[in-house]
Amino acid sequence: xxxxxxxxxxxxxxxxxxxxxxxxxxxxxxxxxxxxxxxxxxxxxxxxxxxxxxxxxxxxxxxxxxxxxxxxxxxxxxxxxxxxxxxxxxxxxxxxxxxxxxxxxxxxxxxxxxxxxxxxxxxxxxxxxxxxxxxxxxxxxxxxxxxxxxxxxxxxxxxxxxxxxxxxxxxxxxxxxxxxxxxxxxxxxxxxxxxxxxxxxxxxxxxxxxxxxxxxxxxxxxxxxxxxxxxxxxxxxxxxxxxxxxxxxxxxxxxxxxxxxxxxxxxxxxxxxxxxxxxxxxxxxxxxxxxxxxxxxxxxxxxxxxxxxxxxxxxxxxxxxxxxxxxxxxxxxxxxxxxxxxxxxxxxxxxxxxxxxxxxxxxxxxxxxxxxxxxxxxxxxxxxxxxxxxxxxxxxxxxxxxxxxxxxxxxxxxxxxxxxxxxxxxxxxxxxxxxxxxxxxxxxxxxxxxxxxxxxxxxxxxxxxxxxxxxxxxxxxxxxxxxxxxxxxxxxxxxxxxxxxxxxxxxxxxxxxxxxxxxxxxxxxxxxxxxxxxxxxxxxxxxxxxxxxxxxxxxxxxxxxxxxxxxxxxxxx
Length: 573
Prior knowledge:
Layout: E1 4-7, E2 12-19, E3 22-25, E4 29-32, E5 37-44, E6 47-51, E7 55-58, E8 63-70, E9 80-83, E10 89-96, E11 106-109, E12 114-121, E13 124-127, E14 131-134, E15 139-146, E16 149-153, E17 157-160, E18 165-172, E19 175-176, E20 183-186, E21 192-199, E22 202-203, E23 210-213, E24 218-225, E25 228-232, E26 236-239, E27 245-252, E28 255-258, E29 262-265, E30 270-277, E31 280-284, E32 288-291, E33 296-298, E34 301-302, E35 306-309, E36 313-316, E37 322-324, E38 327-328, E39 344-346, E40 359-362, E41 412-419, E42 422-427, E43 431-433, E44 437-441, E45 445-453, E46 458-464, E47 473-477, E48 481-488, E49 490-491, E50 493-498, E51 501-506, E52 512-513, E53 517-524, E54 528-535, E55 544-547, E56 552-560
Parallel strand pairs: 1-4, 2-5, 3-6, 4-7, 5-8, 7-9, 8-10, 9-11, 10-12, 11-14, 12-15, 13-16, 14-17, 15-18, 17-20, 18-21, 19-22, 20-23, 21-24, 22-25, 23-26, 24-27, 25-28, 26-29, 27-30, 28-31, 29-32, 30-33, 30-34, 31-35, 32-36, 33-37, 34-38, 41-48, 50-56
Antiparallel strand pairs: 39-40, 41-44, 42-43, 42-45, 45-47, 46-48, 49-52, 51-53, 53-55, 54-56
């Protein structure tokens, strides 16, 4: 606890900086059976000889909001170290440029922190550039791993005997010269990933997006795009009895020597409604390469993947994949299989991999529509990769049959754009748009959209195919619809005067930013007096210090002074 030691204590810290502190454990702060509350706190350039450069938590439950860990260093957990049932809660927290041997940003040992709206960027470690988990099950939502680097495994995240839960998480541009550019799973790890995106990650040997060794993660509504595993598994690599479950997963634009999309060695993954396209293998297995492996593939599409030699699925050794109700370029034996161009909306040639380009939704005339097996769809999965309904009657023959691939064909697309900072959520389905998103619906579907502005911003209205300021907004989708949610962070100040006087505004501007301070000074005319402020603020202070937090209208009231007339009495003497 170079900066602070908390033993059974629960201090509350606001607008505090811990900088340049050093200790064996917890360079910035050490918490033992403690529950401190940190708000707008910065831990920067702290050092720990062993664990927790920024913070060390042992059997502790700290709560962190709007906290930054920057440039801290330790052997384990450059930014934060959690051990022995440490359960910190992190909201709007960033880990930037921290370093460690393991867990550049965070290290968890038999601990399960809860993270929401957290970012890991530019952290470095031997293993787990962003996060390292040992026998731990952290929960992550709306979290990003960007540009982290590990020299051994797990550029973004390393899991050993751990089962974290990830919802709405992005791994982008993480690097590893060995295994698992985005995520590496070892020793029976079984993370659960829902709505997770692996984009542009790199591994010099295997598993550009994800590497699994004796591990079986479960992926639902996940995309792996533009990743590179130099030797094997551009998108995903599975070794040593790994059996991941993939449902509604798209692997596109990934690249490796073997298994551009996926590489399996002595492993048996289960793939349901998975799309492989635009992946490139410099040797073999443009879509998938199997060595002594028996994957199960159903309701899936492997089309437009490239390799120097061989078909979409390359098998060696004892490999005998079970492929049914799938569209395989070049054909593949199995019930319900076909060999027909799926007519993606905008496929990208495999020669361009690694790339994040392409649109692999099915077009209206796709032969993959209504060609899957409903029985193969897991009971707990009721939507496609976009969160739209599955088992929709896409051909109009009265039968609701699941489509092949990660996306269900729907007649009308709703595209949501955003200006400014905020979030758009909606129903039905699972619309969750921090940026641009597209969701498909059957014509006539009623959709409700809710815009939520970030702190300092205000929702200003909807534009495009729908013009409205209602929030939530109820619309009926009949055909392709494009709508923009606009958020603004500039506000007006309207000063009104009742009576006779003047108000000086400092500074006087057309608009003001959120949180900007303004001073109002009221000066009455001769014969008048200042009464007070009303409207946006009720006060008699003069001058008045005002903080702008939205469009503000305020009134300065002046009252005429009462004149007293005294009788003049003339007396004659």
